[in-house]
Every structure is written in structure tokens, then in C-alpha cells.
């Protein structure tokens, strides 16, 4: 059987069966990051690899490559509610790469590490036919968020509005004029890690969380499966600029906000009586909380439309399957 017949998610399920784990490991394969117990604290570990032709669309600058390689790893720490400690990178490049390009990639990594308080701790260099960047992030925390903690009765929510990165990818891959949509392209090429937001969620009682890398629908399914519940989507928080872009291009904005990936906002569940307190604290760090649904008994993901529950397909980015959207993925 070929990997293309299985896809990334089935492969992760197989690895979870093959690897028996270790008594020191609190969270293993299948979450945003792995967690090791270190006394009262938890050490949080994650890794992601990005390839030039898969993850960096035409027009991506070397600085943006370095920035994004850092942020996709830091975003996994954010989803766990962890504080970043360090970043390491293994960087493979063609031997004919200009030194200035190499330096600019380093500058992008350094800028992201500095912004989010992580030390650049080293890594490895190698030769390859295309640029490939494998990042490794280390963080710490006391209360760690997981994908598997959602409870029946919880509110379902996200930080911010969705769809900008997917719309930005559409613009670049269809060679459309950027004009007034630079924000959409920038959201794709220079994503943000919601570190402070994740720490707020962990401190204020969120029951589960995941970063939105593969698309809202796919990540809802991941939360639902890991928590053994049904996620009911009542509204989709599409970014207003995405709605405008979709109207002008006669496109479906829902495709961007529900099935597009790489928003790197946080999708989470939380008891209803904690929503307003979390909303207030998120506003202090410049983010909005959008309640988008609820958690019910059952399985899977449904969308409430006109009082009816319609199934939401488990569709989004998945490695080893042919699809237009690119994102990062991994075992943790």
C-alpha cells in the first residue's frame, strides 16, 4: 500500500499503534506537540519541516522563509499554551545558493525568535536540491492544552477571523494583481504565532485547543475525534477582507475560511461561563474571541443551518494526498 492511499492522518494513527510510548511522556504522537513531565513543569517539544516548492509560493522572500519556518513551530507551542524557550533549525540548501540569500533566511528566523522570546540555539546545515528548513521548538508550561479535552456543553471558539492565508495563496497561485489585498498575501507569507493567546487560554480554563494550520473543518474533526464528541459549527468567522475578495472574484468565501489552511489562529473549547473573561483578556493583547459553535454528545462535525444539522466533510490539507493547499504537518 502506498502512502498516497493512506494520507498523513492514517499514518499518524499507525505510528500511535507502533510506538509504545514512555512513562515520562505525558503527551505523545497525535497532538500539536509532545509533552514531557519535568517536576511540576512540562517540557513541550515540536518539529515541522518546510520545503521550498511545497510551502513557499512564488514571491516568498528569503526573510519570509525564515520567519515562517519559525512561526509554524512556535504556533504548535501556542496551541499547547506553552512559553517558548528555544528554536533549532536544520537547513538544507543547494550549493549554488548565494550567501546573501542564506543570511536573509537567518535574519527571518532571528526576527521571529526575538519577537516571541525564543533563543536560537543552533541546528545543522546540509546540501539539497531545494531549500528545506526543519525546525524544532522547545517550550514549557504548567497547565498544558490538548486536543482531547473538549467537554459536552463547552463553547467552541477561535481567536480572530479566518480565511486570509488561503485567499492570499489563491492570489499568488492564480497570478492575480495584489492591489488592495496585500494583507491577504502577507497573512500567508508572514503568519503570526498566538503565543500570548495560548497562555491565556491555558490559564483561564480552556478544555482543548489546536492551531488552525490545516483548515477549520479539518481541525474541527481533529478536536472531535480526540475528544470523542461532536462539534457543532453555528457560524464561520470569515475575515471581512476575504469576503470582499470573494465577492469581487465571484468566489465562495466559505472555501477560504472553512477549508483553507494556514491561518494559525487558535481553535479551542471552553466552558460557557469563562467566555467573557477570556474575551476580555484576549482584547488586552489585541485579539478578538469569536464563539462559533458548541460541543455536543455524539461524533464528528456538523454545521447548523436554518435549524438543521448538516455534516461537515473532513476536508482540508493533508500530506501525501494531491491537493492545492500547502501547509505543515507532523507527528506532534
Question: What does this protein structure show overall?
Answer:
The model is unreliable at 323-332 (pLDDT under 50). This protein is an alpha+beta fold. The chain folds into 2 domains: 31-141, PurM-like, N-terminal domain (60s Ribosomal Protein L30, Chain: A, 2-Layer Sandwich), CATH 3.30.1330.10; 155-311, PurM-like C-terminal domain (Phosphoribosyl-aminoimidazole Synthetase, Chain A, domain 2, Alpha-Beta Complex). It is built from 11 helices and 13 strands. The protein is globular, with a radius of gyration of 19 Å. A 7-stranded mixed sheet has the order 8-10-7-11-9-12-13. The chain has a 6-stranded mixed sheet with strand order 1-2-3-6-4-5. The longest helix has 19 residues, at 62-80.
Tell me what portion of residues adopts beta-strand conformation.
Answer: 25-35%
Oligomer description: single chain
Named at the architecture level, the CATH assignment of the largest domain is Alpha-Beta Complex
* Spatial strand order of the main sheet: 8-10-7-11-9-12-13
The helix content, as a percent range, equals 25-40%
**Integer count of domains:** 2
Shape: globular
**Main beta sheet strand tally, sense and closure:** 7 strands, mixed
C-alpha Rg (nearest Å) = 19 Å
The residue-averaged pLDDT reads 90
CATH class of the largest domain: Alpha Beta
Number of distinct beta strands: 13
Q: Give unreliable regions as ranges.
A: 323-332
Total of helices: 11
What's the SSE pattern? Answer: HEEEHHEHEEEHHHEHEHHEHEEE
Estimated structural class: alpha+beta
| Distance between the ends | 24 Å
CATH fold-level topology of the largest domain: Phosphoribosyl-aminoimidazole Synthetase, Chain A, domain 2
By CATH's scheme, which homologous superfamily of the largest domain applies?
A: PurM-like C-terminal domain
Amino acid at each position: 500500500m502506498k502512502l498516497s492511499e493512506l494520507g498523513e492522518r492514517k499514518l499518524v494513527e499507525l505510528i500511535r499503534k507502533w510506538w509504545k510510548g514512555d512513562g515520562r511522556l505525558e503527551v505523545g504522537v497525535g497532538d500539536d506537540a509532545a509533552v514531557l513531565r519535568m517536576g511540576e513543569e512540562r517540557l513541550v517539544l515540536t518539529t515541522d519541516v518546510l520545503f521550498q516548492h511545497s510551502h513557499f509560493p512564488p514571491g516568498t522572500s528569503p526573510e519570509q522563509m525564515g520567519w515562517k519556518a519559525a512561526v509554524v513551530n512556535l504556533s504548535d507551542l501556542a496551541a499547547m499554551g506553552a512559553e517558548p524557550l528555544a528554536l533549532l533549525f536544520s537547513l538544507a540548501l543547494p550549493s549554488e545558493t548565494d550567501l546573501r540569500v542564506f543570511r536573509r533566511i537567518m535574519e527571518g528566523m532571528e526576527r521571529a525568535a526575538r519577537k516571541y522570546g525564543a533563543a536560537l540555539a543552533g541546528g545543522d546545515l546540509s546540501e539539497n536540491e531545494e531549500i528545506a528548513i526543519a525546525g524544532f521548538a522547545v517550550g514549557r508550561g504548567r497547565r498544558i492544552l490538548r486536543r482531547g479535552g473538549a467537554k459536552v456543553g463547552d463553547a467552541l471558539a477561535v481567536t480572530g477571523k479566518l480565511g486570509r492565508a488561503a485567499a492570499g495563496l489563491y492570489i499568488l497561485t492564480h497570478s492575480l494583481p495584489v492591489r488592495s489585498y496585500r494583507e491577504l498575501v502577507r497573512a500567508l507569507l508572514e503568519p503570526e504565532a498566538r503565543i500570548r493567546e495560548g497562555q491565556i487560554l491555558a490559564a483561564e480554563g480552556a478544555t482543548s485547543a489546536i492551531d488552525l494550520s490545516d483548515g477549520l473543518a479539518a481541525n474541527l474533526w481533529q478536536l472531535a475525534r480526540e475528544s470523542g464528541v461532536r462539534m457543532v459549527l453555528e457560524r464561520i468567522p470569515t475575515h471581512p477582507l476575504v469576503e470582499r475578495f470573494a465577492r469581487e472574484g465571484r468566489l465562495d468565501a466559505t472555501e477560504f475560511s472553512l477549508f483553507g489552511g494556514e491561518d494559525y489562529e487558535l481553535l479551542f473549547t471552553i466552558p460557557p461561563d469563562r467566555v467573557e473573561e477570556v474575551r476580555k483578556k484576549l482584547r488586552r493583547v489585541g485579539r478578538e474571541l469569536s464563539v462559533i459553535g458548541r460541543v455536543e454528545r455524539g461524533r464528528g462535525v456538523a454545521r447548523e443551518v436554518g435549524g438543521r444539522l448538516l455534516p461537515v466533510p473532513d476536508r482540508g490539507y493533508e500530506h501525501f494526498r494531491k491537493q492545492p493547499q500547502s501547509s505543515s504537518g507532523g507527528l506532534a
